[in-house]
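Notes from the pairing session

We agreed to fold both candidates in a single pass and log them together. This is the raw record for the first candidate, unedited. Please don't reformat it; downstream parsing expects exactly this layout.

Candidate A
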Amino acid sequence: MEIIEYFSTENKEYWLTKLGECEWDAGRMLHRRLSDGSMKQLIGEEAKILLLTDGDNLVSFCTLAPLDDIQPTDLTPWIGFVYTFPAYRGHRHVGKLIRHAEELAKAAGAEKTHISTNHIGLYEKYGYTYHQTMKDLHGEDSRVYIKYL
């Protein structure tokens, strides 16, 4: 398996098609915003979209970005849009992506990363702790997790 960064890869169209196969609402939004070129407007110009691949298959993906669905905030950076395709679930593949995102954040000078979610018990196994509940872009409560790097 290999981790590639969407904006840096030469075959964006292929991986965009693979992202389009995601049935999750947020994944469909990611696909739509990448297709129309508005993703970086939402989550920041420095955003990275990390793809865990198995040959030509997309296993998992996530973003590492200055912003996520909690805006406005001065908390940064965020790991967001975390998803694993059903055929690959149960093997903690997304943990590889999260660790990679954390390493990139740390190399860029970040001392912590944040995740916004409504899941309980998912990100704790990767070292995240509940920080606080905040409103997302839709005005709904979201649990914000934090990990010091």
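Candidate B (folded immediately after A)
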Amino acid sequence: MYKQVIVVGATGMLGKATSAYLKRRRIKVIGCSRHGPDIKCDIEADPQSIINAIKEIKPELVINCAALVSLEKCELNPKKAFNINSLAVKFISEACSFINCKLIHISTDHYYTNDSNILHSENDPVLILNKYSETKFKGEQYALEYSNSLIVRTNVTGFRNQIDNPTYIEWLINALKSKNTLKLYTDFYTSTIDPISLVENAIMASRKISQTILNIASSNALSKKDFAFLVAKRLSIELNWAEDASVKELKPKRCNSLGLDCRKAEMILSKKMPNSSEVVDKLLEGMPRRFK
């Protein structure tokens, strides 16, 4: 197991969960982001700061969780999206190469559309529909230039604990418990996984393979509507007020068939990825008190 790890984007939802997971396993974690918690590194405005941190600390592993994930913000500011989702990955990869440490780069699943709940392999052709997917795909290409990298395609949700900036699962639980208006997409499919399952399997895989793309997600794909009904069932809530909606109504245009085939990861790790029911159970087991 790694002894010292830098987590880039440490104050985000996945970065926080990753840092907490590593600390529970008594691994030294150095969290980097614009606001720390350990080192302040602005990968957009001052990429040299993260390069210096990696070279000075010399970790065994760098996990890049940083990203601009808002499709709207990526469209409105494509330069910002490129700097964070693409160019920063190039700088991080080059710094890792300088000290020859492992890099796990967290990518996206936003590459497939209009084929329902099909599970896509790492070799399936991608479709670029917006600046988010364009810049994330370019980031993958930069990471693949480094021989000791692992690029993880995934769809992850968890708890951020920021009332004014809820994650998908936080928004959904609040809406279910408050019986807020719910419009649920019937044509938007994902293989959503919880943060702990993601980071645990990514770290295990990083010890076995390099310079490759790997899907790490739930073993099946569900529509957003079916996922919401699954969460409601686990919370013993009768969801009888939701309305059907289509992702095609949204702007900017986005991919809607994001299922990921995880058989490659399962073969490498000699284990099954969790299914959607198991993912929901894990999410609700770790639900903060304010959601209960």
